[in-house]
Structure formats: structure tokens, C-alpha cells
Amino acid sequence: MIHPIPPGTRDVLPDEMRELRKLQADLLSVFEERGYGEVATPALEYDEVLTRGGGRGDHAAYRFFDESGELLALRSEMTVPIARLVATRYEQAEPPHRLCYVAGAYRAVSPQRGEMREFLQAGVELIGAPAAAGTVEVIEVLEAALDAAGLGSAVIGLGDADLYRDLLGEFGLEAEARDAVLARLAAHDLVGLEAELTAAGADEAQAATCLALSQLRGGPEVLERAREHGAAAVSRAADRLEDINAALGSRPGGHRVQFDFGLMRDLGYYNGAILEVYDPAVGHVLGGGGRYDGLMKRFGLDRSAAGFALYLERVHTAQIEERRRGEEGR
Amino acid sequence: MSAASGPLRLAVPRGALFGETLDVLDAAGVDTSELRGDSRSLIFETEGMTLVTMRPSDVPTYVEAGAADVGITGKDVLLEQGDRPVYELLDLGFGRCRMVLAGPKGSDRLGESQRSLGMMRIATKYPRIAERYFESTGRQIELIEVKGSVELAPLVGLGDGIVDLVATGRTLEENELEVREEIVECSARFVANRVAHKLRAAEIDELTEKLREASRR
User: Cys-Cys link to B163, which of A144, A157, A313, B124 (CB 3.0-4.6 A)?
Assistant: First the structure.
């Protein structure tokens, strides 16, 4: 007899479970080796806590009342619950705090899109370590995690969350028009972006700068090319990225970072460096993260912070795909 | 899955945009002669690129998943499937048409329904565009989704009006319908997969530039 489960959820059977456990163990040992202690938080939080974190617009897709009428919600990611944990448990403790997790999170899905309502994330949070050293450490942990997962071809895209907010301010665009432009940038709709910039009253040179920056991605040479646009906001972002590049570049073995002035993350709490992980074997983003210095303050503790999360099931898919390609000798 | 290496995969829309898509690709230096033949194949290898032909409405699906790195499709399709995260890189300028609200010529059925029933019944192939449009203009509608010739619906009493794409307006004319409101202008767009756009930056930028040149001619 067939007993259905909700779309976007799934059972895991032993063959897959064995591989997922192996992957989790490999990632956790990378995190532990670098001093990140594993934590668990409840899948259920008070809705007020997740709202305060204010991550995604849909910070919680599933809300319900408990037996005493309190509004609860299923977490949609782990950064906000960990911010809550650190503010509560480590208020008096000397930073930095290094924490890691492998945990389920929950989001709403579009029907018939193969999206998961329940999924696993593996990641780290480094709280109390300012840029650029803190950011560099997080990138190094991420690189080691990708190595441990066997994703030799994976690339880390590195951008700056403050770039466009600053730049559009510098251009003197009104707040409302600025939001419309940022929305087009986030959607990476260049046709709409050009139209919104014109509608917002940006002049031709300003519009051209925005459009060119959104397409500027590649090795460290793009930092210089970005500066050629001359705006102060751009050179501030380029400086921040340059600092990271200098710290990463001084290590032996090179790194997997690609600089990307077009990078935007849809989580509201980021500032400064932001990152995304890509693998040529998978058409979707494998994970992301960045700095969220402002988030801890919302929980009453003034700490700089950075972290990343990988979608574990997607990393597993990429792992299998990369292995297959390796065997086919492509 | 996305092609990590090897030729760039381009999704080519069959149907109304097919001819002009091939023309702009030719002008951009992509050899499309095989596609112009009467081959039943769906996949064509040209120099440095694999062309995959499909329905325009499937293009965002293939590109989002990375089964095609880049693709060409109508803005109407992208708006209808607006939740698919693909990068919209270029307005190719051809395939221009308008998404409109149309009603029976010389009759105020739309207005009458609005007044006496508080809502209009709208037949369309674009339920999400229609829904969003009426929501944003503060009107309530009863949406009737159809797959084929939507002009038929109001003629036989299925709905008071339609939301549909209009190029020349001849189909509306022939079916005794007329444009009441214009919703949005559409044309063919060049789109890219999010990951391919990052990992195959040089190739995609080069193709984008060639297409930009070609579409301006």
C-alpha cells in the first residue's frame, strides 16, 4: 500500500544514507580540525526570533501555534538560530566563537519544480572575528570543505554586499528607486536593470557603470578593472576584496576564488564580503555565505561575524557527478 | 546537468521565434544551416556550440537546471515563469508583441461583469501574468486557464475577456475582439544559467557581445 509524503520531502534509504553520513563526517572533521565545535539548535523557534533575524523575506514558511498559543516557526536556515544561541549563551565569553553544524532547514517550494521543502545544510559561523582576517578564515575553511568533499572543480564566487547600496546612494538615487534597481540587480535582469536605472534618473555614465559592474567577474585582474569606473563606492568594495585577495594569495597552492562584482545574495543581513559556491557538474548554486556584522546586534550583542552554508544534498549530487566525469576521463 | 567543459549549450526556441533566432545567430557567427534543413533532430552540433531546439516555454526550465548554459526565449515566457532564477542578459529586439487585455468588440461585457458581479472572468494562457496584473491594479478576476486558441473563449461565453499576446492584432480582429488595456511589451531575450554565467564567463560574455551587435543591425 502506498502512503504518500508531502511533496518536497523524501525518505533516505541505506545506500544513500551511508554516502550522506560519510560526506557529513568528512565535512565535520574539516570543521573540527580548524577549531569549529558542532552545535545543534531546535528546528522549531519562536517566530519572533526568526523575524528579528530578518533573513529571507520568507524567513519561515511554516508557522503554527503551540498548545499555549505561542507562535512557533520552522527555521529556514541556521545563521539566525546560531546568532540567537551566541547572544544568549556567550554574551560574557571572550570572542571569537567558532561553531559548525549539519542540520535540516525548511523552506516553501514552488510546485513541480523539484525544490526541497526539507533539506540539509552544513556550515560554519565565525563570530567575533572582523574582516578581512575573519572572512579569509571562513573562505579557507570552505576551500578545505570542498576539497574534503572531492569537489575539485568547485569555484567560490566572492563579491561585496554593500557595493550597490553605496553606489546608488553615491549616484543620488531616491530610496524607492534604489530598491527597484537593487531588485533588478538581484534578479540579474539586465534588460530591466537598464530600464529601472533610466527611470530612477541615473545618467548614461552611471547606468553604464552599474551594467558593466554587474557583469564583471573573474580573477584578481577584475579588481583593477572595477576601479576604472572611478566611483568611491566601487573602490571601497575593491579595497575590501583586495585585502582578502592579498591574504589568500600569500598562501601556497593558490585558491579557488573568483571575484564577482555582480554577486547579490537575497538574505537581508549581509554586509561586506559575500560568497557563493558553484560546481560545473551542477546547474544550481551549492551554497553561500558572507559577513553579517549587523545581525548579532539585532540580538543585542555587538560582534562582527561571517560564515557559510553548503546544501548537503546538492554537494552530494556534485560529488557523484564529478566522480563520474573523472571516470569518463572528461 | 550542465556541460562543464566542451561546447556551450544553447537552447533555441522553435515556433514563432525560430526564424529570427536563427537569423540573429547567423549574424553572430553561429552556423545554423543544419537547423534550417528538415531534420527531425532536436540537437545540433556546430563549431564550438551545441544547439538544442525546444518549445519556447521549456527554455527557462532547461536553462535554470543547467541542461542548457544559455538560451533564447520570449519575455512573455520569462514573466510567466518569473520564479525561475535565470539571468536575463540581453533584449534581442525581435519577436516584439504586446500582452493585452482584450474584450468583445463594441460590447461592454468586461465592464458589466465588473459592475454587477464584482469581478471579470478572464481566459488566458498566461495565468500568472494575468493574476499579477489584475492584483496590481486592484481588481478581482476569475481566472480560466486554457491551452489553445484563447480567442475562442469569449466567443462561446467562456469568460468576458482574454489576456493574450498580440503581434499584429489580426487574430483579435478576425474574432471580433479589441484591445482594452496594454499590460506589458515583450520581445525575445537572451538568458543564461546562473552557474554557467559564473563559470563560463568569457564564452558567455563573448556570445552576448556578438548577439548585441547582431541584434542592432
Answer: B124
